[in-house]
Amino acid sequence: MMEHILGIPTEQVLPLPSVRMVGDRKVEICNYKGLLHVGETKIRIATCAGDLVLEGVRLDVAHIAKEYLTVRGRIQRIYYEERV
User: Fold this and answer.
1) Distance between CA atoms of 40 and 69, rounded to whole angstroms?
2) Alpha helical stretches, state H, the chain
3) What pLDDT score does 13 carry?
4) What is the pTM of this model?
5) Which of 1, 14, 22, 38 has the smallest C-beta neighbourhood within 10 Å, fewest atoms?
6) Phi-psi region of 40 (alpha: psi -120 to 50; beta: other; left: phi over 0)
């Protein structure tokens, strides 16, 4: 995949999700569409690449804005799941 389009990073041109994990305690997600499920052990986030699922312990949406959201807690697993 191209890393840049016209000299601009791909994630700024296409609505692809960007996931940044800080240790096992914080995840920042950019370019998300919405929250589908929020629970203490599982959070499901809609993205154009499918549903991003975070599993862990004491999960919490710490910050939510139009551009990005932050999840805190003990993150044990992150994966994409196709929407059926």
Assistant:
1) 16
2) 10-13
3) 66
4) 0.82
5) 1
6) alpha
